Amino acid sequence: MEENKRLVKVPTMAEMAANGEEPEVLFWVGCAGAFDDRYKRVTRAFVQILEHVGVKYAVLGTEESCTGDPAKRAGNEFLFQMQALTNIEVLNAYNVKTIVTACPHCFNTIKNEYPDLGGNYEVIHHSTFLQQLINEGRVKVQGGEAFKGKRITFHDSCYLGRANDIYEAPREVLAALDADLVEMKRSRANGLCCGAGGAQMFKEPEPGKKDVNIERTEEALATLGAGNGVIATACPFCMVMMNDGVKNKEQEETVKVFDIAELIAQAEGLSK
Amino acid sequence: MIGIENIIFLIVAALGIGLFVWQIRKIRKNVLLGRDVELADNPSERINKTLLVAFGQQKMFKRMLPAVLHLFVYVGFIVINIEVLEILIDGIFGTHRVLGFVGPLYSGLMALNEILAALVIIACVMFLWRRNVTKVPRLATGVEMRAWPKVDANIILVVEIVLMLALFVFNIADMKRVLLAGEEVVGLYPVSQFFVDIFGEDPEQLYIIAKVGWWFHILGILAFMNYLPSSKHFHIIMAFPNVYYSKLLPKGKFTTNPAITHEIKAMLDPSYQPPAPEVDAEGNPVMQRFGAKDVEDLTWKQLMDSYTCTECGRCTSVCPANLTGKLLSPRKIIMDTRDRMEEKGEHPAIFAPNHYKELGVERVETTDEKTLLRGYITPEELWACTTCNACVESCPVNIDQVSTIMDLRRYLVLEESAAPASLNAMFTNIENNGAPWAFPASDRFNWADELYVPSKN
């Protein structure tokens, strides 16, 4: 280990509770954030930011379980409620007040659907959380990679955007990078889905002419134009779909897909 | 001066209105086939939404050209109805331009009417052009856009043009007759004044032409009113209540079934006492299906949605599944719901359901089952939905296509266990590992291994 780095020991709720402490926020990692190799890097980038600014946070660790979102969107209300009621029991036992998550699906489910089942929390998506940290000056967006002049286009997640009307927070986070932000024709409320929502992530597409992620990637690539560019996402499923699309179009050398938290961690010099 | 003509008019008007009321009662009965749902909360927010979205046409303006054209027809419809009121009074009491006493205001209204009527004609001609010549894809394509919806759309546009022309015929002939008699013209007629000589100078003939124009306009309106319940044009009425009762919650919040909550709580905690089951009028417990198989499993709002649909296809044109060639078309889901509801319940004067099998539409592999699910809507369509809410966002009258798709999906999964195999595998993973993928729960925290941050010094 180099001297200028320190090893992070990610605190769990169980440890905090044992010490009689409560965190400011619970970071809900989500299944993709915990298991998907690509999205684990986003989870780590977000934790690096939390550590860097000194937010008092904790995770559930192995006590976390699927929110039930994919089951619910697939029509399995029974399995969804089983997951939800079990999770709510855990969250309420730890007296959780505020939850931050990097997954719009977890965000939507906990924020909008858990209250009906007895789970009432302030739920924040990491785009809004990062925006606050930047606005408060706790994240300065300097000391790392420079994005000035780099072409970035933001792909709206349906469960962040249309589902919860969060369009500006991720854009303001990206604006802090001082990059060349370009909008796709279909953006914000008119954004085109990546194709993974509604449990499509876990099944083959129905018969058709084209995959949705290809349609969306073509739009993103056309918007970025020739040369290097970044497709920014704020959702694990969007990230998988856009990555697959870029590979399908054989553009992975020039066009990268990053989550907004990764871009901030890079700009802040946290992810070396 | 009440004469035989006025009495005939009174009878015709009463018949027309009576027939309309009779049809509306049928529609009401159909909508009430749906499950009950409480949607009366937040009246002030609902009124606001109705003013913006329904009266203010807010969501139409996502597409400028059709929005402006539609605005002409919409404002024309509302303002010209004031003249229709006058026509009714004149018809019953044998008066002539009875509202003329308000003077300049009347002149302004008549002038506005004429300008709007001209704009309505221009807009309708352009709408016909878009449908039949340039064939705008969302209006001209899709398996649900079979013969009847296309004919229906054209009938509406042609009738609107003819009604407006009848109004002009009446105004022109009436004005010329009044002028010839040396009387003062009541009101201002900025369009008709240019055509004042086209019907000749014979007072007798002008009187008849004015009468014919007048009768044609009012009879046309009565007939058109009775055509509405059979037509997509019914949106001119339903748009208002449908927007009022639309979802105020975030679009991402799907409904939670409390019956399932009680079942799970009882499973987790044997001492849990679920509330007594709902009973019907005879005291028998109400059996509720999980999800929707047929129209009575949907809520009255979901059924009202389908009477509000004007088949504009904005939803389908932004649907990611439809855009990429999948069978799903949100508009078809809504139109099928209406067809099935009228097949099962009452139906208005003209009834032309879309039986895909009988029509030989091969792509929609419906079965002979007499239910909404499979009889009209196939699982393939339902499984293509990404629940992205683009359709809901795009709908100018706040129809919630996703809620109907979800309820049909729930029936497939909860009552038939008929999910695609890959989704069943996902369910099993969640049950066993607490994640949709087959990773052991004990590995959930491995992402935190070997994580470093720069130290601050």
TrEMBL record, chain B:
The chain crosses the membrane at residues 6-24, 67-89, 109-129, 155-173, 206-228. SUPFAM superfamilies: alpha-helical ferredoxin, Respiratory nitrate reductase 1 gamma chain. InterPro entries: 4Fe4S_Fe-S-bd (IPR017896), 4Fe4S_Fe_S_CS (IPR017900), HdrC_iron-sulfur_subunit (IPR051460), Helical_ferredxn (IPR009051), NarG-like_sf (IPR036197). Pfam families: Fer4_9. Keywords: 4Fe-4S, Iron, Iron-sulfur, Membrane, Metal-binding, Oxidoreductase, Transmembrane, Transmembrane helix. Coiled coil: none annotated. This is (Fe-S)-binding protein. The lineage of its organism: Bacteria, Pseudomonadati, Bacteroidota, Cytophagia, Cytophagales.
